[in-house]
Write a structure and sequence with these properties.
heterodimer, A: alpha+beta, 6-stranded antiparallel sheet, two-stranded antiparallel ribbon, 6 helices, about 35% helix, elongated, B: two-stranded antiparallel sheet, 10 helices, 2 strands
Chain lengths: ~240, ~210
Amino acid sequence: MKGMNKQSNVYTIIYIIVLVVVVGAALAFTSLGLKSRQQENINADKMKQILASVHITPAKDSITADFNRYITRSIVVNDRGEEIEGNAFDINTADEAKKPAGERALPVYECTIAHGDVKYILPINGAGLWGPIWGYVAIDADGSTVYGAYFAHQGETPGLGAEIEKPAFSNQFEGKHMFKDGKFLPVAVVKTGQAPANGEDYVDGISGGTITSKGVGSMIDNCIGAYSQFLKNISER
Amino acid sequence: MATENKNLSALLNPLSKDNPVIVQILGICSCLAVTAKLEPACVMGISVIAVLAFANVIISLIRNTIPTNIRIIVQLVVVAGLVVIVNQLLIAYQYDVSKQLSVFVSLIVTNCILMGRLEAFAMGNKPWPSFLDGIGNGAGYAIILIIVAFFRELLGCGTLWGVQVIPQYCYDHGYANNGLMILPPMALIVTGCIIWAHRSVNKDLQE
């Protein structure tokens, strides 16, 4: 290195190019080496969330096994309730929820729990106050009664909006109905002490987490709404 | 003997007398953000120790070749590269913790402690002292994180490392978790209390 002018432009440019190429190669190597492991973690996390909606908490090392045992069939439907081509698990439901209902590919996970009961698990995605919120709603074979629900968020306010992920909130949905007298009226989220005007079933929102609670309500309207024909079909089976 | 003393002080000084968080008031942002629970605080501490030690060694190794006018950019590229690697490793091996830490691991890049140590120490010292300096400063940061997280998790959730430590008996007799402890402002207040206690012991630090 002696004798070279380290302050010259040529030296500086070559130096930074070599440095960036070396660092870039190291990053590409790490990313490729860890990719399959990371994807496994991401998939396992999604399976855990899906099972949470039917109150199943798998042990850390048996998530995939439990998922394959309980989720007996996963299909993709359109908003007319017809089964279409596709792999339910790989669909990015957050992107689908932004499309008009008619163009969406809607995953349905059929879960067979003890006694051979079949529950239909539907993914839902929406927006809270600070970022995305999402969840899974499990519906009974009658196509209307909620068996269980799971909600998650990316960065809602701790103690306020973030409370939607607690069972105290999600357990309220159990036994509520998506249909009233044959009409599709999804469960509403309202301020404590109030009731919705149309007579649909409702749960109490989180005090202090108004925008997040409203986000949950509109997420259910938007996403379960797209499944209304599918749910009607299974109720007539 | 003199070098050994110097190395030892590079390692030990940042733990108390020259602590990056409570004396130099650096890295406060992440200190407030990730200290609601002990586990993410520990992982964050270990991540910073690893990134800082390796960044210090790498910069120290190439310190004589770096053109002065782009030295900050070179430091940033090295730190950013290391941080991305740490983040990828966390997603692969500690997925739940990486979800809790979310953006804060990536934000190690902007942590003032790193740039401070690289510029002030690694640019002018040999790799081994730089390595010790990195470990020392990272550990100084981690200790404060863990102390803050200890109090916040204990008083805010009644748990430590996710295990319930405050018995049901206390709750039955009217004890309630302090929800405010979970929010960022209390991290600032707890950090302030640590600084207060630290300066009452070390009178020479009082201004």
